[in-house]
User: What shape does this take?
Amino acid sequence: MIDLHVHSTMSDGTYTPSQLIKLAKDKGLKAIALTDHDTIYGNKEAREAAKKYDMEFIHGMELSLNYNNHQIHVVALGFDEENKAFKDFYHELRQKKQSSIVSVIDYLQKSRIRYFSRKNVEPFIAGGALDKYAILRYLVSDKSKAGDIQYLWDRYIDPAFNNLNLKITENPKAEDAIQAMKKAGAVTSLAHFHKK
Assistant: This one.
């Protein structure tokens, strides 16, 4: 058995990349792909853990993309992270994601979330970048915000991105992203066609 779509704490998952690999091994999986949202930061840790547990590891990422003014999610698997087309695309992707966070933090501060500030979120940065998942990790750690990851996402982060129209403006065009990923050797597929 294999799992080609899992998330770690580098985006909206519950386990670190190495914990995921151990869990997959304990469950009897033969191969796993880490597909965190819009980041490859956990792939190195997962790859090293997979070697330790003698599992096959596949590079992956779930991309948030703009298709006809709708956000879609596309899973990309098996790409070469050293490929120039991938590096150029990924650099631009991360720049867009990080630049939007200042307005999200401002929005959430104005929503009067207790103790919410950039200073409080910064300790939850992973991969050297302040992004929406750093905000999510902060909200999870703040015991005054009741609820699981999905609740916190739906209650705080999703409304901020919707009201600021960032779901469309910060996402790359699907056609451009998929072309860049294919140049890097990726296999791509729609992540979940049933969601808006």
